[in-house]
Design brief:
Layout: E1 2-5, H1 11-26, H2 31-45, E2 52-58, E3 61-71, E4 74-82, H3 91-105, E5 111-113, H4 120-126
Parallel strand pairs: 4-5
Antiparallel strand pairs: 1-2, 2-3, 3-4
Helix pairs in contact: 1-2
Length: 127
């Protein structure tokens, strides 16, 4: 797996994959993708020197994402996504580590995120 910087061409993929995966796995309605689009656009537009968004790739295909920014004095993790085919191989930790390292390099000593109670596997990773 490689991590690379988010590119504008990744926007539609990131929104579509959130919409599709959360719909298929947890029954979220399609408007969840609209919410992700709004959050992503706000994230991209907000000036924040700590802000960073990565796309994970494997064999040239996008398989995940993670972002970090500053919020209320903490590093805030967002847009954490891993394709089902990439799960169960420790890649979630490989997504989290660069984001946490980046947060530390910007002086943050706390990281937080918001998630959904139905994401039990993800919540275990976040702990």
């Amino acid at each position: 797996m490689i991590l690379r910087a988010f590119a504008p061409s990744d926007r539609d993929w990131l929104i579509a994959r959130h919409r599709s995966l959360y719909g298929a796995e947890f029954g979220f309605t399609p408007d969840f993708g609209d919410s992700i689009a709004d959050k992503l656009d706000a994230f991209l537009a907000r000036p924040d020197p700590a802000k960073r968004l990565w796309i994970a790739e494997e064999t040239g295909q996008r398989i995940g994402s993670i972002a970090v920014s500053s919020r209320d004095g903490s590093a805030f993790l967002n847009f954490v996504l891993l394709e089902p085919s990439a799960r169960g191989r420790g890649l979630g930790h490989h997504l989290m580590q660069p984001a946490l390292d980046h947060a530390r390099s910007h002086g943050f000593t706390r990281a937080r995120l918001e998630t959904y109670s139905c994401l039990t596997a993800a919540r275990a990773l976040y702990r």
